[in-house]
Specification:
The protein is an alpha/beta fold. About 50% of the residues lie in helices and about 15% in strands. It has 7 domains: about 5-130 and about 260-285, MutS, DNA mismatch repair protein, Chain A, domain 3 (Orthogonal Bundle), CATH 1.10.1420; about 150-255, MutS, DNA mismatch repair protein, Chain A, domain 3 (Orthogonal Bundle), CATH 1.10.1420; about 295-510, P-loop containing nucleotide triphosphate hydrolases (Rossmann fold, 3-Layer(aba) Sandwich); about 515-560; about 565-625; about 625-700, SH3 type barrels; about 710-785, 2-Layer Sandwich (Ribosomal Protein S8, Chain: A, domain 1), CATH 3.30.1370. The strands form 5 sheets. It has a 6-stranded mixed sheet with strand order 10-11-12-8-13-14, with helices on both faces. It has a 5-stranded antiparallel sheet with strand order 18-17-16-15-19, with no helix packed on it.
């Protein structure tokens, strides 16, 4: 991508902001090397990864990104045979720990959101637990090799400690003795050249026999190793050398262990960098309130309420703009400081950001096409060193653009043709734009020239646009108006500021006929646009009024139809109430029987079931009579899905779709506890009009379907209570059409479980039952499947 264009469209500033969101130098390195790409498949993946990062942060904002360290140099050192230092092993350990935590974090996603791309990256991480453990067992947190790193090192360090204690003991006796204290500068023991010494006054040099290892800067103090500890110091020196050799051996072996996993560590580095980079994009997306744009292969742009990310959110004016669908070239006119350049930079920056895998600060529905070539001629490029004027500098850049422009190009021109004679500049600008059109590139150009407005109005695939100016406040509104060319406000502004009227009038007479025609054209277009908006608004209001009246008529017709069945339905509902009361009495009888004869509950339960069947039979007979009511009109159905609520006119009942239509247009619907085969043309849409069914089967079904759960937890209840609860729950669950339910009785001693399962063997609605699986609750749960 052209670096000049990236700078002019300010992508480099976005990159600088993105760098600050990274948690590691690995991520920052990726961001600094980030450039727009034009590969569709890769861009889709990049955008999805950014979206997944945003979703993860929304649900789990604390992400384990700590410990991601650049260890590429350490890996390289191990590969060429170098021995790693203890502190370097700690960096490798931190990276391994970070890899393990991120693999677990990203690999264990929750059900409320899906992150397949980030899970894929997690799978690329290699967890080296053995290496982690070996480093942890070898190197302490302060960077020292642990005593237990090897048996030999442990033994050597024990000998060193023993020798050090013996030396200190001898020297302590020396410095504490009254005879020696007058010879010493201080009663202390210190170390010089890794040997224990005492500070002796210069004048008493011969009073304490030994070897001088150092003296003070003044020469008044000599640091002497007494002869009494010379042999012990020699042994200590020997073991210290052995300690260093053993540590070197340990570090070499550990480095060789690291060298076995060089490829895995290098891959982990790349993956960790990409993960950090992805979450940096996600954090940046949140900060600028951005969305994932729709990436398309067509050379199109559609930005809905886009907000330039480098302008304060309190000042930015949302931009809505399209390009490449109805027109390929957009000519924007308007006053200075009206927002024309910001419009160019916003569109160009959004395309660059999208092609970097970044979200854009706009509304959902925004579309960004892929442009392999993006060029911009924006700003004052005057070069003093090259003795080029502003016009010359722009022309040099434009010539370079024209040589490369083709159908894959997106080009931005700011104040095209400016910097020279207006008439020549306008003619040159039109010629340039005609060349751009022939190349089939997409382009946006800003200008002050009226000739370009006329050009845009006459040419195909070219559209006018303008930045709005409020003549009352003498300020731009920064709103972009597509389809309306900008007009000159010079005379209006001058008059508003108090310029004498005769001067304004004289100035208007001096403008050319072409400019007058262009001004009239602009005024006419603006009037037409306003009139069109007004007509559209009136049409929408009238259409809404017609829809409202039509809905009112349909409601009145349905109300008339419904009233015809009120008398019959009320009588039937009263009968159903009688049946319900009878059922309540039967349930009370069942409860009484079970409480009186606990040991005979199975026989009593059979009698209760038989009684319930008789009541259900009566209820079904009455329901059958209810189903013979007259038809109720409704909307004809064109499309059905299983679970949809429909109305069956021939039986005057609502129903739930249980199967899709077959080749004969027949399907099955469920009405209460019954399943009925009907033709699709015998169904209508369920409306809100059937309010008369307040106490019937339909209401009962709806109420129960809203409240009934797929499980019943009755742990802690007595056997008699449990039997009543389960029996009623099974009836309700079967009534609303559940296929399977879970009975949670707990494990305990198994008495409650066995009693319930004995009842299930003889229950009329139960097809099969089984013990819950591992994830279903095991022995503490019984899974029940109903008969169809």
């Amino acid at each position: 991508m052209n670096k000049f264009t990236i700078q002019k469209l300010e992508l480099d500033k976005i990159i600088s902001m993105l760098v600050k969101e990274c948690s590691s130098s690995l991520g920052r390195e990726l961001v600094n090397n980030l450039e727009p790409i034009a590969d569709y498949e890769t861009l889709i993946i990049w955008q999805k990864e950014t979206t997944e990062g945003v979703n993860i942060r929304r649900f789990e904002p604390i992400i384990p990104l700590g410990g991601i360290i650049d260890i590429k140099n350490l890996i390289r050192k191990a590969k060429i045979g170098g021995i790693l230092e203890p502190e370097e092993f700690l960096k490798i350990y931190d990276t391994l720990l970070a890899s393990r935590k991120l693999k677990k974090f990203l690999g264990e996603r929750k059900k409320q959101y899906s992150t397949p791309r980030m899970q894929w990256w997690a799978e690329q991480l290699t967890v080296l637990t053995d290496v982690e453990q070996e480093i942890q067992n070898t190197i302490a947190n302060d960077g020292k090799v642990l005593d237990n790193a090897s048996i030999a090192l442990n033994q050597i360090r024990k000998k060193i400690v023993t020798l050090q204690n013996r030396i200190k003991e001898k020297l302590d006796n020396l410095v504490r003795s009254e005879r020696s204290q007058k010879y010493l500068q201080e009663a202390i023991v210190t170390i010089r050249d890794e040997r224990y010494v005492v500070p002796v006054k210069q004048e008493y040099r011969n009073k304490i026999p030994g070897i001088v290892h150092d003296q003070s800067s003044s020469g008044a103090t000599l640091f002497i190793e007494p002869m009494s500890i010379l042999s012990l110091n020699n042994d200590l020196k020997k073991y210290s050398l052995e300690e260093k050799e053993e540590i070197t051996k340990i570090l070499k072996e550990l480095t060789e262990k690291i060298n076995e996993y060089v490829e895995e560590l290098e891959t982990n580095q790349e993956v960790l960098a990409h993960i950090d980079f992805t979450f940096a994009k996600a954090r940046f997306s949140e900060k600028i309130n951005a969305i994932e744009p729709k990436i398309v292969t067509e050379k199109q742009i559609s930005i809905i309420k886009g907000r330039h990310p480098l302008i304060s959110k309190d000042e930015v004016v949302p931009l809505t703009i399209t390009l490449g669908e109805e027109f390929d070239l957009l000519v924007i006119t308007g006053p200075n400081t009206g927002g024309k350049t910001v419009t160019l930079k916003t569109v160009g920056l959004f395309v660059l950001m999208a092609q970097c895998g970044l979200h854009i600060p706009a509304d959902n529905g925004s579309v960004i096409g892929i442009f392999p070539k993006i060029y911009a001629d924006i700003g004052d490029e005057q070069s003093i060193e090259q003795s080029l004027s502003t016009f010359s500098s722009h022309m040099t850049n434009i010539i370079n653009i024209l040589e490369k422009a083709d159908e894959d190009s997106l080009i931005f021109f700011d104040e095209l043709g400016a910097g020279t004679d207006p008439s020549e500049g306008a003619a040159l600008a039109i010629s340039i734009l005609e060349t751009i059109l022939k190349s089939r590139a997409r382009s946006i150009a800003t200008t002050h020239y009226s000739e370009l407005k006329t050009f845009a109005f006459k040419e195909e695939r070219v559209q006018n646009a303008s930045v709005e100016f409020d003549i009352k406040t003498l300020r731009p509104t920064y709103r972009l108006l597509i389809g309306v060319p900008g007009k000159s406000n010079a005379f209006d502004i001058a008059q508003k500021l108090g310029l004498p009227q005769y001067i304004v009038d004289k100035g208007r007479k001096l403008i050319s006929e072409n400019e007058k025609d262009a001004a009239k054209l602009i005024q006419s277009l603006e009037i037409n646009k306003l009139q069109s908006e007004l007509n559209t608004k009136e049409s929408e209001e009238k259409l809404q009024e017609i829809k409202s009246k039509l809905a009112q008529i349909e409601e009145e017709q349905l109300t008339i139809k419904t009233k015809e069945e009120d008398i019959v339905r009320k009588a039937e509902e009263k009968a159903l109430e009688i049946i319900k009361e009878a059922r309540k009495e039967s349930e009370a009888i069942i409860k009484e029987i079970r409480s009186v004869a606990k040991e005979e509950f199975l026989k009593a339960d059979n009698k209760a079931i038989e009684l319930k069947k008789r009541l259900e039979s009566k209820e079904n007979n009455l329901t059958g009579n209810m189903l013979k009511g007259p038809k109720v009109a409704g909307k004809i159905l064109k499309k059905l899905e299983i679970g949809d609520e429909v109305f069956v006119p021939k039986i005057n009942q609502r129903a739930i779709v249980a199967s899709l239509p077959n080749s004969n247009d027949e399907l099955q619907v469920q009405v209460g506890v019954m399943k009925v085969n009907v033709k699709i043309n015998e169904l209508t849409a369920a409306t809100k009009r059937a309010k008369a069914d307040k106490t019937g089967i339909g209401k009962m079904m709806i109420d129960k379907s809203k409240t009934i759960k797929t499980e019943l937890d009755f742990r802690g209840t007595r056997v008699e209570e449990a039997l009543d609860l389960v029996d009623k729950y099974l009836d309700d669950a079967y009534l609303v059409g559940l296929a399977q339910v879970s009975l949670i009785h707990g494990k305990g001693e198994g008495i409650l479980r066995n009693t319930i399962r004995d009842m299930l063997k003889m229950h009329p609605h139960v097809k099969t039952y089984r013990t819950g699986g591992f994830k279903e609750g095991g022995e503490g749960v019984t899974i029940v499947e109903f008969k169809k």
